[in-house]
Amino acid sequence: MSDQTTSAPVVxxxxxxxxxxxxxxxxxxNNGWNIELEETYFAALIxxxxxxxxxxxxxxxxxxxxxxxxxxDTLAAASGQGTPMASRRRWPMTTARRIPKPVxxxxxxxxxxxxxxxxxxxxxxxxxxxxxxxxxxxxxGLAAENSISWMLPRLVGTGVAMDLLLSARVIGPEEALQxxxxxxxxAPEELLPVTLAYARDLAANCSPGSMAAIKGQVLTDxxxxxxxSRLQALVAVSEVTSTPDxxxxxxxxxxxxxxxxxxLSVDLHVPQGWYR
Length: 276
Known about the structure:
The protein has helices at residues 3-7, 35-50, 72-81, 95-98, 114-121, 148-156, 158-167, 173-179, 191-205, 208-221, 226-240, 244-254, and strands spanning 11-16, 19-24, 56-61, 89-90, 103-107, 110-112, 124-128, 132-134, 184-186, 273-274. 45% of the residues lie in helices and 15% in strands.
């Protein structure tokens, strides 16, 4: 393998207009998931949480695939033919959910297994009309991994989640859109332009503090009662109305101009543990 190949970053980063584009860059392996990709991607997410210049994050894959799951070499090791992944301390596979900024998946091709989980962990999912989706686990002799059995029913409902998990069948983008698995389906050449335009609109016009609060509310409220959610919302509103973002939001509306919100910096401490 050439030095150029070995030195190529496994995650490309491009920050423009407040939007950080993270591209999984293993096209020669269809962006198959391995430890290097995992650690680099999650480290980039955690760094983005602290960077006030980053307001929205978009995640995609290089080449024709998003992520088809574990790289075959890594999968062989996990099945006992090499050094198991369980021997390493790892960040949660759902790390994207902990980032207090919108994370949008631009699914450009196959999303399966861990790739499917990473897509679910994002806040929004835009898909190419050539994308394909499968949970994969039942056809690999695995249980539902990394809280997919918690995330998927809350996104598409219990019956649909059972179908996708038990059958591990491959579905196309139109079916994924119909069941609510993805938010939009666009032509392949339009996927990044449409996703980035949406992300730039959030970055330019939405308060980073508000988006962080709302993301936290939506995800945490999944485990709260309705009354707990109502009470927590009262607390959240009282907190944000005392921030400069609220003052700027009101003032920019009154002056009929675009808002000028400050960036958000959050120093996250995401625990690493043993993968099981």
